[in-house]
Amino acid sequence: MTKHKTTKGGLTVVAVCLIAAACLAIFGNSSSRLQEPAMQQPGNDDSLALKKAVMRDGLRGAAKLRGNYVEEFNPHWDWARFDVEGLTKGSAAVVEGRFTKKLDTRLGSEGMVIYTDYEFSVHELIKGDIKKEDTIVVSLPGGRVTFEDGTSAEQTTPKFEHPQIGRAYTLFLMQREYDQSKFLLTGGPQGMFDIEDNVGVKSHGLPDDLTAIETKGKSRDAFMKSVREHAKKWPQPGKCCG
């Protein structure tokens, strides 16, 4: 995958959003479907039929053809890498709290990505227009859906670990204009950090993501201090990539 050079601490979100807009246009306005998933391996006889079904009707079409369709999905962004300041600047909200419940799994409006919704209890609002102690819904890529005809589609995310209920996380969030009821992670998995253990922050991005490199070995207190400082510098809600 080709990495795009970003300027640490001075990432120009406007430029990234222009790239994002082009990518969203290509991928059906899905900010999460950033590369083609690895499809369930068909035989030679039906590979073309499967491709046509996906192009015509998305995952629903693949499920209708296969009965139970499974594919690996990689939600990591290889076209926009952020440092922590860039994430903070580009986010509509930055929060600290805990995932409290796994909710429904659903097919995205574009028909190509499956999302699992989670309930998240906000303990600290670092940036944005969310009330402290509010409960919000965060949508994460991956999961399994069953359609009305009994067929199903599943997207596994072996390169992205979903959150553990009850653990503490810091989230960098964005929203889509057409759905203000749910939040997505800014920068994909780059925007989620496990901060349960003070001895070290765990980034859910790739090991070579700027955020992962920047926070490696950093304590929870040191990480949260830097995030709060960035939020004071960039208090206005960002509009990155959604």
Describe this structure in words.
The longest helix has 20 residues, at 47-66. Helix 3 (84-90) crosses helix 5 (220-233). It is built from five helices and ten strands, in the order H-H-E-H-E-E-E-E-E-E-E-E-E-H-H. It has 242 residues and is α+β, with helices and mostly antiparallel strands.
Topology overview:
Elements: H1 13-26, H2 47-66, E1 68-72, H3 84-90, E2 93-107, E3 114-127, E4 135-141, E5 143-146, E6 152-156, E7 168-176, E8 179-185, E9 192-194, E10 202-203, H4 210-215, H5 220-233
Parallel strand pairs: 1-6
Antiparallel strand pairs: 2-3, 2-7, 3-4, 5-6, 7-8, 7-9, 9-10
**Largest sheet data:** 7 strands, antiparallel
Number of beta strands = 10
Poorly predicted runs are 1-37
Distance between the ends: 22 Å
Task: Briefly summarize what is shown.
Helices cover 25% and strands 29% of the residues.
Question: Which key features would you list for this structure?
Answer:
seven-stranded antiparallel β-sheet; alpha+beta; disordered N terminus; elongated; three-stranded mixed β-sheet; 5 helices; 242 residues
